[in-house]
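Q: Start with the shorter request: fold the first protein.
A: Done. Sequence, then structure:
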Amino acid sequence: MKNTVNRAVALRISQLLREKHITQYRLAMNSGVTHSTLKNIIHETVNDNLLSTVILIAGGFDMTVSEFLDSPLFLEENLKI
């Protein structure tokens, strides 16, 4: 089943929160993205994620955007574009 880009971003954030043992609140503080925006992304109530927001979130995980996107979730064959 293919995911939308928004779903893939939400899944990746959730995966990294678990792997790195940090909370949504801590990620919000680390990234500069408000907790409410982060929550909306994770719960997929945002219609379109901006690349600038993804860049901030990657930084909040202390990762590059390339590292954040380095997941099978973002392979073209796994996305509904």
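Q: Next, the second protein, separately.
A: Sequence, then structure:
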Amino acid sequence: MIEVRKDRERIKISSPYNPDYITQIKTIEGYRWHPQEKCWSVPYTEFEHVLSVFNGEKLEIEPSVWLEDLRRELVSRKYSPRTIKAYVHYNEEVLKFFGKNPYEITNNDVKDYLFHLVEEKDVSTSTLNTIINALKFYYGEILKRSFVYEIKRPKKDKKLPVVLSPEEVTRILSSVSNIKHKAILMLIYSAGLRVGEVVRLKPEDIDTERRLIRIKGGKGRKDRYTLLSEIALQTLQEYCKREKARNWLFPSVNKDRTITTRTVQRIFLSACKRAGIKKEVSVHSLRHSFATHLLESGIDLRYIQELLGHKSSKTTEIYTHVSIKNLGAIKNPLDNLFKGGGVNLD
């Protein structure tokens, strides 16, 4: 059995000792022997050569080796790191699920896998659509196979966002004592940021003179400006006095990297617990709350769309369904029945 796995920009090859294998490997340009690991390595660009020289041999190839072409294509097209990670992950899961290489995957395999996700894993519609996009990109764009285009997309779940009241947002922000954590959550709420946008902020993105935040390469690789709150700015300036940010506004322990989105989610959920919030919320609920509170204060939906960076106005219109601006003005018919007097509950 010959094992082939990926290691950064190279492929590592392990096998029982066999002089014929060694001879074949030495025909591959850029080969190296690693005595400590007792394996060979070749540049990833020689993957096709590896397949040809070991044609007919039993190869156990790690899925990530097959998918390096996918990763490189996504990077060259400037897809977001989050999308790249998701597309590679979901395609890798398909290969692991069936124990096949990409050229052996059939139309029925794809349909069976999607059925498995819905029936046994109960994945959400949005996740299922992302998986379909990942499969279509790899098999359609990279491998030039058309069978994935037969996949019918599920209807989107018509779920309304969970919105926090202004009082609940106040309690959450007030429960945070760590100045860095407080600045992060304040910026998300006061500017309507996605969590991936706040972690990628750089010091130069904060325009203190114009009271604006520049979001570079947001969803859809679109730049936009959004609001910079006076209170958030004061908190941010206090934070910057204590920690001199260089590359990133909110670095991780390793200053060359940003704080992770998962860490921000944990910060938010911990704050919610301290604030006694019982709603099923995520850090994205702060963005939903920002939009809803603006709408309730009379801000035109078109401006909210720009601040959020929504491509379509229909996406922003969802907040009209959770706003109390109009619903709160409706007189409940039960209250009309007992106008002027209470109900006898004895």
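Q: Describe the second briefly.
A: The first strand starts at residue 2 and ends at 7. Residues 81-98 form the longest helix (18 residues).
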